[in-house]
Structures are given as C-alpha cells and as structure tokens.
C-alpha cells in the first residue's frame, strides 16, 4: 500500500532502479564474457546500492534537521535499512537467482540430445528473460524479510513505498 504523501523515489521508482540489476545481466552473460566483466557488473550494481544508501541518509538528515536528539539514530537506521534492503533485493538474491537459472540451463544442455538446446546463447537468453520475472517477487520478499527482522528489532519503519 502506498502512502498518500509519498512523492516517489528516484532510486526505486525510476530508471535508476535498473542499475541495481546490472549484475543480473552480468550473470546472464557469464558463459559468454570474461569474468572481469561479470565482476564489473557487480561493481556497478554495488555503486547503485551505495548511492541509494547515501541518498536515503541525506534525506533523513534533512528531515531530522530540527530533531537533534534522534537525528543520528534516525539517519543510521535509515542508511542501514537501505543498505540491507538494496544489498539483498538488488544484488545478492537476484544475482544468485540468475546465476542458478543459467547454471541449470547449462546443466540441462549437457545432457540434451536436441540441437536447439546446444546454443551457447540459450542460458544467456533464458537468464535475461528471467530478470523481469524475478524483480517484484524479490523486492516483496526483501520487504517481508526486513519487516520480520531488522525493522521489527529496531522499530524502524521506512517510508511506505511501492514494494509493500
């Protein structure tokens, strides 16, 4: 459910969100490109995560400018929440998921007798096609996991967004 005062989030609601999925593209192409390019895709996705973390911390700092008592605590909770959420929702879980999808396709290719299954591009194509299918479920799962753990333990509730 979206808060009616919610004004959008440049890192989660716009095209910048796709930078968080750069590593999934790298994973999809893993069988065709040098490993250094796969790792570069992780650097780009991690840069996105860090940028969003800094952005959320700055927004919280500005919001808390008159509340010196809780300012540092709220900024730390906001940045920690963003760093954890983005790390899992944008890099770790989707990267592992696409890696395993592609590895499964490659495993099946080894044992297939069908010529169509032998294409070097098959695992990449299936990996790329899978990316848009996994985004929303992973985002929702990250929210649910954060709500059941970090947010529950700390009492911190970030601005309700489109993932809820």
Features:
mainly alpha; elongated; 164 residues; 66% helix; 0% strand
Explain how this protein is built.
- By secondary structure, this protein is an all-alpha fold.
- The chain has five helices and no strands.
- Helix 1 packs antiparallel against helix 4 (122-148), helix 2 runs antiparallel to helix 3 and helix 3 (71-111) packs antiparallel against helix 4 (122-148).
- The protein starts with 21 loop residues before the first helix and ends in a 10-residue tail after the last helix.
Biggest sheet character? none
Shape annotation: elongated
What is the average per-residue confidence, as pLDDT, rounded to a whole number?
89
Write the H/E string, N to C: HHHHH
Number of domains: 1
Rounded to the nearest angstrom, the distance between the terminal CA atoms is 5 Å
Fraction of residues in helix: 55-70%
Whole-angstrom Rg: 19 Å
Number of helices: 5
């Amino acid at each position: 459910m979206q808060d009616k005062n919610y004004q959008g989030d440049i890192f989660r609601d716009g095209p910048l969100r796709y930078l968080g999925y750069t590593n999934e593209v790298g994973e999809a192409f893993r069988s065709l490109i040098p490993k250094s390019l796969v790792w570069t895709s992780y650097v780009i996705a991690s840069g996105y995560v860090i940028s969003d973390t800094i952005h959320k911390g700055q927004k919280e700092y500005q919001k808390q400018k008159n509340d010196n008592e809780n300012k540092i605590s709220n900024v730390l909770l906001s940045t920690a929440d963003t760093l954890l959420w983005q790390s899992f929702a944008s890099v770790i879980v989707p990267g592992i998921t696409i890696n395993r999808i592609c590895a499964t396709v490659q495993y099946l290719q080894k044992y297939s007798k069908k010529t169509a299954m032998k294409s070097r591009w098959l695992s990449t194509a299936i990996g790329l096609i899978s990316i848009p299918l996994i985004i929303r479920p992973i985002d929702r799962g990250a929210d649910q996991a954060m709500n059941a753990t970090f947010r529950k333990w700390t009492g911190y509730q970030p601005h309700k967004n489109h993932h809820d």
